[in-house]
Amino acid sequence: CCLRVFPRVMAQVAPAHRPMRVSAAAALGMIAALAAVASYSEAAGSATSRTAAFQFPGQLKLNKARMPMLDSLSPNRKHPSLQFKGPSRLHLRESLRMVQRPNGKSARESPTTTFSAVRDAIELGTLSDIGGVEDMLRNTPIPQHPRIVTGKLPNGLEYSILPNSNPAGRFECHLEIFAGSADELQSQQGMAHMCEHVSYMGSRKRERLFGSSSQTNAQTDFHHTVYWAGCPTLQPSTGKPMLPLALDALLDVMEARFEPSRVEKERSAILSEAAMVNTIDYRVEVQLLSALHAENRLHRRFPIGLVEQISSWTSEEVKRFHSAHYRPNNAHLYVIGDVDPRDAAELVRRTFGHLEARPPFAYPPEEEIEFPNLKQTNSFFPPVNHEWAGARVAGRDPPRVHVFQHELMQSFSLHVFNKHPLQPIRSLADYRRALVRRIVMVALQVRLNVHARGNPIGMIEFSYLDSPREACTVCALDLMADAVRWEDAVAMAVAEVRRMAVHGLTERELQRCVTALLSDTAQLAAQGDRLSNEEQLQMLMESRACGHSLMDPVQSNEATELVASLLTLEEVNEAARELSMHIASFGQEGSALPSSIVACAPKGLALTEEALLRALRDAAARPVSLSDEVIVPQSLIPSTDALVAQRRPAFVPPVAKSPADAPAADAPADPATGVVRRRLANGVR
Fold first, then answer.
1. How far apart are CA 461 and CA 463, in angstroms?
2. Does 309 have pLDDT greater than 90?
3. Which of 79, 338, 551, 560 would staple 555 via disulfide (CB 3.0–4.6 Å)?
4. 599-653: per-residue pLDDT in tens?
5. Secondary structure class of 322 (helix, strand, coil)
6. What local confidence, expressed as pLDDT, does residue 114 receive?
């Protein structure tokens, strides 16, 4: 079983004795920087790391950075060219030609019908202004992955099936129940996790998968509980299909029995987990999430629950929670791997079709759950509402700031959050908007990485990532620094964010970022079906939860090429201002305040909420200049001609017993043997 422990905390305890953990956004910055340099080098060509520099439906992965895969307590895995008049239009035809499609042809050389109308309009020049472009993009839906089979049983159970042959001979089944810790009543804190244990960890049908090279586990989060089984397609011993057994084990979750002995056994396991998870990293993350979601129930509904309640529930009480939420019309089943989608769909129908739909659970008034809430608009979300970015204004509202200090902490960390509504990506206009934001993130992260050298900043990242578990998108500035020099670290971070807000990107900087991202999506498209079951499933589940249309990697590459060719420097810099002004203008009268500010530091450090706010205000009030443009040369060597001439290979006379016996450097073959003797100037014979 796994709870979700949240990965934003970066090795705050004894950092000198821990390997450095690089976050997804920090890795993104480094990859983009390397790829940008590589794109200017003939030797490197357009190659970049496979690690995704950004993620949209159909791509690997950046959005997962805020999907907190709680550290498993089990040994199983945790899981762009319209050329408008004027200097502002970014011309990317050359960049698009540089990035090759998987079959060796560019998108323009091998067009598909996916976006043919938009591509034809661009090529024919029929779009005369930016408004025409926006209208066409808005009216062009993103296509769905061509191999995904979806359906819904009469009882409301939805399913998604994706055939995938990597690895061959294996598949995964994941049953997602839309009930997590945020769905618990005041007296049920930890019960979603308890149901997970009793329903699956104690399942006899799950035990039938043991000894067949299968893996099983489950995880509980704010918004859902997920049960999964990863199995070989055929039983190793008998050669019979394993999919029926895996689905039967997941059916047992829906029909779980709550015998007192089973409940008691899992209660003991949960209490042990509660003790194990109570680390300093977990405590820090609780502080961050509590501050970020102070206005809703997420700050008091962590999946592990309350020990005193866990110790007292009866089996009937746990069964009532299960009956309220474990309904077929409150679940989604995913099957991915080496399976026939039609056969799998029929098997899903036969296995789960008899379950009866039931009405949603009615929360009593004393629970103070707001109606309407975000779960009513998207069943994947927890039942909460948020105070969105911009709701709090400097001079009118007090800032939300919190300082947490503990004797086990050795570093200072700062976390500045802004919450935005999660926006589904369903059209090319949505895709373009998301691409612009990702470019800003890449460019800013490259700049910030310059400061992350340990003097005083050891880690810094700026992210804008979807989080269905929290029902929002979170824009976050996270840094760790030397505790003694925390004020210098804050000043450096705010100055760089402010520089981006005031001056934006340069055109060269934009070109480098776009080229790097284009190269990255082309590499993902080239991988095609070689993406693993786990990677494909992760994209599928998160796209469904966010409401995104999921494309396959080739479609995604086409969309990225097309949308990137339409970008302007002005729109990218406008997005940069929007994303960073809550930090860049902090404290200015009438400016929007961040959703929350949290600082964590060693106990005894002279750090107060007022001192932190003063440091942020002072840093945001200082003027910032435009950074010097970094010119990336085509080559680090001015001229190679002279070096090549010096090292051009040449033949010299072969070695002989005496100079008189030495043959000429170009002597013919020996008449007796036919052997030709030659010697290079470097001594090779």
1. 6
2. yes
3. 551
4. 999 999 999 999 999 999 999 999 999 877 666 666 676 677 777 777 788 888 8
5. helix
6. 66
- Nearest residue to 529 via CA among 167, 100, 230, 149: 167
Contact 47, 435 (CB under 8 A): no
Tell me how far apart the alpha carbons of residues 224 and 382 are, in angstroms, rounded to a whole number. 8
CA distance 514 to 500: 17
Q: Are 440 and 505 in contact (CB under 8 A)?
A: yes
Q: Which 8-state DSSP code applies to residue 339?
A: S
> Rounded distance, CA 518 to CA 536, Å?
20
Q: So what's the pLDDT on residue 659? A: 66
Per-residue confidence (pLDDT) for residue 634, from 0 to 100 = 64
Mean pLDDT value across the chain: 83
**Cα-Cα-Cα-Cα dihedral sign, residues 3, 6, 9, 11:** positive
Q: Which two tokens stand for residue 170?
A: 């294996």
Contact partners, residue 279, CB within 8 Å, separation at least 6: none
- Give DSSP secondary structure letters for 170-238: EEEEEEEES--GGG--GGGTTHHHHHHIIIIIT-HHHHTTTTTT-EEEEEE-SS-EEEEEEEESB-TTT
CA 307 to the chain's CA centroid: 32
* Of residues 560, 574, 258, the one with CA closest to residue 428: 560
Strand 596-602 and strand 401-406: the pairing is: parallel
Give me the mean pLDDT over the 170-190 stretch: 97
Cα(465)–Cα(443) distance, integer angstroms: 16
The DSSP code sequence of 513-529 is HHHHHHHHHHHHHHHGG
* 32/314: higher pLDDT: 314
HSE-CB of 305 using CA atoms within 13 angstroms: 28
CA distance 106 to 117: 18
504 pLDDT more than 90: yes
Residue 631: predicted pLDDT: 63
* Distance, CA of 114 to CA of 431 (rounded, Å): 14
| Averaged pLDDT, 661-675 | 80
Residue 185: exposure state from Cβ atoms within 10 A (0-12, 13-18, ≥19): middle
Structural tokens at position 292: 């970020």
Could you report the per-residue pLDDT of 64-96, keeping only the tens digit for each? 333 333 322 232 323 222 222 233 333 333 333
Cα(340)–Cα(352) distance, rounded to whole angstroms?
Answer: 18
Predicted local distance difference test score (pLDDT) of residue 427: 95
pLDDT at position 312: 96
Distance between CA atoms of residues 480 and 600, nearest Å: 9
Which residues have a Cβ under 8 Å from the Cβ of 599 and sit 6 or more positions away?
401, 402, 403, 404, 412, 413, 414, 415, 486, 607, 612
pLDDT of residue 660: 65
State how far the alpha carbon of 186 is from the alpha carbons of 74, 207, 300, 308, 319, in Å: 28, 33, 9, 13, 17
Question: CB atoms < 10 A from the CB of 619, how many?
Answer: 23
**Least confident among 230-239, 433-442, 667-676:** 667-676
Q: Are the CB atoms for 327 and 300 separated by under 8 Å? A: no
What digits encode the pLDDT tens for the residues 427-443?
Answer: 999 999 999 999 999 99
CB-count burial class (<10 Å; 0-12, 13-18, 19+) for 516: buried
For residues 275-299, b (16+ Cβ closer than 10 Å) or e, as one string?
A: eebeebbbbbbbbbbbbbbebbbbb
CA–CA–CA angle 620, 625, 628 (5° rounding):
135
Query: What is the token pair recorded at 87?
Result: 């200097």
